[in-house]
Amino acid sequence: MTLLYALDLLGTAAFAASGALAGIRRNMDIFGVLVLGLVTATGGGTVRDLLLGDTPPFIFKDETYLYLSLAVSLAVFLFHRRLDRMLHPLTYFDAVGLGTFVVIGTGKGLEFNLGFVGSVMMGVMTATAGGMVRDLLSARVPMVLQKEVYASACLIGGALLYLLHRHTSLPHAWSLLLSAGTVIVLRLLAVRYNWSLPRAAGSDPTP
Amino acid sequence: MTLLYALDLLGTAAFAASGALAGIRRNMDIFGVLVLGLVTATGGGTVRDLLLGDTPPFIFKDETYLYLSLAVSLAVFLFHRRLDRMLHPLTYFDAVGLGTFVVIGTGKGLEFNLGFVGSVMMGVMTATAGGMVRDLLSARVPMVLQKEVYASACLIGGALLYLLHRHTSLPHAWSLLLSAGTVIVLRLLAVRYNWSLPRAAGSDPTP
Amino acid sequence: MTLLYALDLLGTAAFAASGALAGIRRNMDIFGVLVLGLVTATGGGTVRDLLLGDTPPFIFKDETYLYLSLAVSLAVFLFHRRLDRMLHPLTYFDAVGLGTFVVIGTGKGLEFNLGFVGSVMMGVMTATAGGMVRDLLSARVPMVLQKEVYASACLIGGALLYLLHRHTSLPHAWSLLLSAGTVIVLRLLAVRYNWSLPRAAGSDPTP
Question: What confidence tier does A89 reach under pLDDT thresholds 50, 70, 90?
Answer without folding.
Answer: confident
